[in-house]
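Fold this sequence, please.
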Amino acid sequence: METFCNFVIQKGKNEPFNLMTNSSDSILCQHDVLEFTQVAVQYCALLEQSEGQSRKDLCATLLKLTPLLYLKAQLLPRIEGDGTFLPDEQVTEQDYEYVRGSLASVLGNEDEYLDVVYGEMLQTDETQWKRISEHLADVYQPVRNFLATCQGGLEDCIQDALWQLVDSFELYWGQSLVDAMARLHHIAYAIKVDENDEDTEE
């Protein structure tokens, strides 16, 4: 799959994401949008090259990036749009499965977990099996599509893509990001506490 990894490595950590626009009036030049793209590139690059990483290192990096991505998404400007100029999505089903599968492989038996899902008005609840890898891939897909539109440099398309990104954040992938963070925290800290308690008992 085509990834941002080589771009990030070639440009170096201190170089900005290459926004393809020649206009200082572009919405991409707004401070909050620019900062979001910087974090988004790091997030996408991390997921695209997650294969072969240790679970400890991956979780540690994700616990730094995911809260930052959530914060920067909240600060994005709310603009009007109707999807007229939305380009075709760049993330294919194969791309999604590659990212999800790579994450699942690294997370191993910590990927799947049982979650309580509350029904309408909290009157009923049920348990469902969920996967951290799916949460993270569900975030990757809209974010990567937005970055691909930014690379194209067409202002009308970028504005519609930003409108779609913010709308889907509020309705969908923002919650996926929160769910992933909760489980990553559990892996990084709750399991460590349990292990320490067992050592103390011994």
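The radius of gyration is 18 Å. The first helix runs from residue 5 to 11.
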